[in-house]
Amino acid sequence: MTIVEYRPEPSEFVWTFGGAPPARKVKPGDVIRLWTEDCYAGKVRSEQDLVSQVCEFPFLNPQTGPFYVDGAKPGDTLALHFVSIEPARDIGAATTVPFFGALTSDHHTATLQEALPELVWLYELDRQRRTVTYHAKSADLTLEFPMDPMHGTVGVAPAAFEARSALVPDSHGGNLDTPEMRAGVTAYFGVNVEGALFSLGDGHARQGEGEACGTGVEVAMNTVLIVGLIPGMLTPWPRLESDTHLMTVGAARPLENAYRVAQVDMIGWLADLHGLDHMDAYQIVAQAALAPVAQVCNPIYTVTSKIDKSYLPARPAYRGTHAELREQAAQLLR
Amino acid sequence: MTIVEYRPEPSEFVWTFGGAPPARKVKPGDVIRLWTEDCYAGKVRSEQDLVSQVCEFPFLNPQTGPFYVDGAKPGDTLALHFVSIEPARDIGAATTVPFFGALTSDHHTATLQEALPELVWLYELDRQRRTVTYHAKSADLTLEFPMDPMHGTVGVAPAAFEARSALVPDSHGGNLDTPEMRAGVTAYFGVNVEGALFSLGDGHARQGEGEACGTGVEVAMNTVLIVGLIPGMLTPWPRLESDTHLMTVGAARPLENAYRVAQVDMIGWLADLHGLDHMDAYQIVAQAALAPVAQVCNPIYTVTSKIDKSYLPARPAYRGTHAELREQAAQLLR
Amino acid sequence: MTIVEYRPEPSEFVWTFGGAPPARKVKPGDVIRLWTEDCYAGKVRSEQDLVSQVCEFPFLNPQTGPFYVDGAKPGDTLALHFVSIEPARDIGAATTVPFFGALTSDHHTATLQEALPELVWLYELDRQRRTVTYHAKSADLTLEFPMDPMHGTVGVAPAAFEARSALVPDSHGGNLDTPEMRAGVTAYFGVNVEGALFSLGDGHARQGEGEACGTGVEVAMNTVLIVGLIPGMLTPWPRLESDTHLMTVGAARPLENAYRVAQVDMIGWLADLHGLDHMDAYQIVAQAALAPVAQVCNPIYTVTSKIDKSYLPARPAYRGTHAELREQAAQLLR
Amino acid sequence: MTIVEYRPEPSEFVWTFGGAPPARKVKPGDVIRLWTEDCYAGKVRSEQDLVSQVCEFPFLNPQTGPFYVDGAKPGDTLALHFVSIEPARDIGAATTVPFFGALTSDHHTATLQEALPELVWLYELDRQRRTVTYHAKSADLTLEFPMDPMHGTVGVAPAAFEARSALVPDSHGGNLDTPEMRAGVTAYFGVNVEGALFSLGDGHARQGEGEACGTGVEVAMNTVLIVGLIPGMLTPWPRLESDTHLMTVGAARPLENAYRVAQVDMIGWLADLHGLDHMDAYQIVAQAALAPVAQVCNPIYTVTSKIDKSYLPARPAYRGTHAELREQAAQLLR
Q1: What is the ipTM of this complex?
Q2: What's residue D62's pLDDT?
Q3: Rounded to the nearest 5 degrees, what angle is found at the Cα of B254, between the Cα atoms of B253 and B256?
Q4: pLDDT at A334
């Protein structure tokens, strides 16, 4: 196994999917050990570091990449298997930012109201106990939530000559902000340009479903992933596979459209895997799919559809890619 | 404990929340053993029984009730604790109905396209093994899903002199269609009229999140519930409590508004229970709340917010109503 | 011509469509001279009269009616021709109300922000010069806008045993808040219950498209209308006809669904009138329909579709009802 | 006056805003005589030329440009005054495209339904009589609509290092598809990058409000415009000014957000021009703004807000730019 190491300098951060030259070239089968900075570009270090003061638009949500994958071309599917995603610091920061988040007006849900207060909550991350610790500001209350590290942002260069801000999710992936993007999972993306040009960032030590305040518990990450390539298979929207679930992610507004996109894609996937027509697959989704909200704060919203693999006959998706990469990951961890 | 038994005749079905005279009078603390017909008014018995042919609008989603609760008045909260919800038949029916469901145009998301095929899937319900069995029509595929019985529709008479169709959810409850409305759960509703006038129906042997095709595995139910009343406590939107979770249900369109309503209500609830300001409670919701979609098919959509009670200090909600009713339920089951 | 006069006492106001007994019985062809109170039930008389202090929910938007129309039955269409709509006072009031309006969060678009300031603007109405006069509060600025009187709320009893708040529009009409509901126009509504049971109210001396602040220039109205009945013709959504335009009104959320409903209904109407298939009628709508937003503040939003009758061959809609009622109105005004 | 002529070859078409090198350099005050190809890249010439067969994604909606404006820098406003917009052919084509348009499911409003029929309607354009002529396919019906030429797509390079498909509108302009973008109008755009890099295309001989079928009467255009630059003035969203109206365009989903953005921007504009606070300007908008839907078919929807300038005291917007460019245009036409 070739192991590629990459820790970008701040000057090497990228701010878009598409429109940036490759940082590294990799091959299918390569392992990448990389580091990602947090969504604040590392500038929120204390409760006094308000985003609107220490960060400068558009230098938000820096990505590590892009990685050029040898042989990847439009019409293929890129598979990224997350071997491990581990916080690289002991403190994570969640913030409110004026006119950003699900429970405030924002630049699209425009109102005449004042912004909510701008605040920073620092969470202690205990990597042994796997906890993140919250401290209330208005009362003497300390809470521990389970640590559940994930990448909010993973994606490839978009189609149609576009370069999209890393703050936005769409069919190319990007700022999906689903807590399902955790270690042990394989993420699939349709390749739009030669080399796929994938990047990732925006680590969260955890987040609630919907990412209501606009951020998770944001932290730099040390991440190990394995690159796979499935030639000649289209993937219209981002998909995920774990040992237990098949998952699709829809990105759209309003939120019901994100739900629809995720479910229609799941129906297509199930129909293909199990030789069903769409109405039969619709019925499986209607009675058996979970549909957690992913985020309701970015310019485009996301919803995840999840099907328990144990409900279905064993039919390897993507020619068995997940099992194969899982096995490779196991060797790596041995 | 007074036990009230009620099995409505078809002529006694009610089709609205509000606008119907009480079927029975009950007192706080009473146990009700009732039966609810399925959403098809029992008319879908075979795969040939297409809803558009055997059912007649508006005679859909019959409710059992309303129950007049002695002493309930506007400003109080009604608590309904579900002791048991058990399918009353061995077969459940899921259907597609022209221009109804999440993945078709409908009367509001109006398009010029043809309707999807109208179909009936019959599921065998095994009450011992706790499974519901699906048969594909287009392939030789049989799947077993876990049985997880619930009521899609529970609510009280609405405010403002309204009578609302039982097909619609709103702040009075109604057709919420959240799979969280299962046995072991206490549901809270704000009382809008004297006697509260609650009804329920629309049993599902299970449903996926979002109820994508427009129905769950619909079946008549034998249900036992205990009535509680919390005087002088307002409940703005339906709330649920289980042994493990606090839950709120938002009902609105577009779906992001249902999410917002559920989360803002959860924030108010947490702030009250734990003496927090709204920004601190917002942060807890942002990092710790789950947000499964409930349904995306009714005239108003629903999203549930869930907080794990183990994350929080023990503070009994609604003056300990859930624990009390749970204890009463335990006696009943003994 | 029978002329029915009706000026309700405050105790006779109705607050819902459906669920109220008839105030008067009328026959097709009857003229009704009626008076409607303003949406504040007449309680906002000075800039100190804040809605949240002087009005009491749900006693908002009082309706005059309902009128029982002899012979009207489900499947028929009710036609209401507005002969005149004239302000009954010299002052109209526009207000902001906490968490109500298009440019604030509200009970459905729920956020954690503070409400906007609650204010009253009084407009002088000059019925000779046909102007309404605005005075800014924050600057020395006085503006005159054209008077354009209309009824925000007109409708019939809804289907499915419902009673709907007069604050809500839907397929039965209700709080449509389209400025097209002015004198000279015939409004068509599908009849859902025997007698149709129509009501009206919510006069505006004028309003902007969208009714952004939540109110128009609200004022009591003296209105003369003629009642028509078209037996055996269905009207799925409210329609309007003037001498120059055919109009449909869609009511739904999100706003694109209100647009869709209005356009699909217009397509059906044009297809019927001109013997076209839906694709050809779609094309006419696509290139020739106007689509002004009606309101973005009520629990359900509305959009109007308008087609210039001069673009189309003369084919009388609804068997020539508009021309006939227009002629009857002309006699009345002679 | 410098007059710049530019007629791109097909190989010079650009498909994005941002991400393309300048085609020409111009100076403020320059007149540009340019030609734009239609949205089909000229490939739909007969009723047999179905878009899905003759066009190839993403080679749709070719733009003429970009033009680099000397001295334009972020923080400035670019003004484009349309002297004339004239169809360059005698035939315009409107089409339906599978899963594109307001009255069909699409890639975001995803359903399982079949696509609508794919059709082409050819319109004869009479540049003397100023008419466009429609022929029904399903009946013997020919209609004449007024010719009202416009550009569907005008914009500058976006911020945040993005390159956006010419099919998408947003705060940089792009595929706004408002019929208000006609000759005699000055369009204002905030400059995001050095040189502004504006492009335009997508001529329509006319379109209905909402562009329901997904296209207007599409045609190549000969267009004359004058370039203006207002240094040091921000323009957050596209604005338009005619001799009679101030206009803003909001771009967002759902459609109510496009409405909100347009109205909030209008409020800011009026408040600045007339020294009002936002509540007073809100009131003017609420009672006096028109709000026609622009389009409901692109990935992001648009709504226009319009205020009649005659309602307001004369205060030149943008330091009198419109009047100045209008005067320059008059000289040109003399």
Answers
A1: 0.98
A2: 98
A3: 115
A4: 79
Question: E strand or H helix at D224, and its extent?
Answer: strand D221-230
Q: How many CB atoms lie within 10 A of CB C298?
A: 27
The CA distance from B218 to B223, in Å, is 15
Is D274 a residue whose pLDDT tops 90? Answer: yes
Question: Helix, strand, coil proportions of chain D in percent (round to 5)?
Answer: 15, 35, 45
Q: Please give the backbone phi and psi of residue A311, each rounded to the nearest 5 degrees, phi first.
A: -75, -20
Residue in chain D closest to B100 (alpha carbons) equals D111
> Does residue B334 carry a pLDDT above 90?
no
Q: Is the whole-model pTM more than 0.95?
A: yes
pLDDT band at B312 (very low <50, low <70, confident <90, very high): very high
CATH top class, domain C3-235: mainly beta
Nearest-angstrom CA–CA distance, D196 and C300: 41
Q: Measure in Å the smallest separation between the Cα of A200 and chain B Cα atoms.
A: 21
Domain B3-234 has CATH 2.60.120.580: yes
B contact set with D (CB within 8 A) = 103-105, 109-116, 254
User: Can you tell me the distance from the alpha carbon of C252 to that of C263, in angstroms, rounded to the nearest whole number?
Assistant: 13
Q: Which residues of chain A have pLDDT under 70?
A: none
With beta carbons under 8 A apart, name residues in chain D contacting A108: 252-253, 257, 260-261
- B1, pLDDT greater than 90: no
- What architecture is domain D3-236? Sandwich (2.60)
**pLDDT above 90 for D1:** no
Confidence class for position C169, pLDDT limits 50, 70, 90: very high
Indicate the residue type of C319. R
Instruction: Describe the crossing of helices C278-288 and C255-274 by its angle, rounded to 10 degrees.
Output: 120
Alpha-carbon distance of D102 to B110, in angstroms, equals 9
The model's pLDDT over C231-270, given as tens digits with 9 standing for 90+, comes to 999 999 999 999 999 999 999 999 999 999 999 999 999 9
Name every residue whose Cβ is closer than 8 Å to that of residue B318 and which is 6 or more positions away in sequence: B77, B79, B188, B230, B233, B241
Which of B116, B211, B293 has its CB closest to that of A286? B211
Those residues of chain C whose CB sits closer than 8 Å to some CB in chain A are: 103-105, 109-116, 254
Distance in angstroms (rounded) separating the CA atoms of residues C98 and C92: 20
Which amino acid appears at position C99 of this protein? F
Q: What type of residue sits at position D24?
A: R
Query: What's the gap in Å between the CA of A183 and the closest CA on chain B?
Result: 19
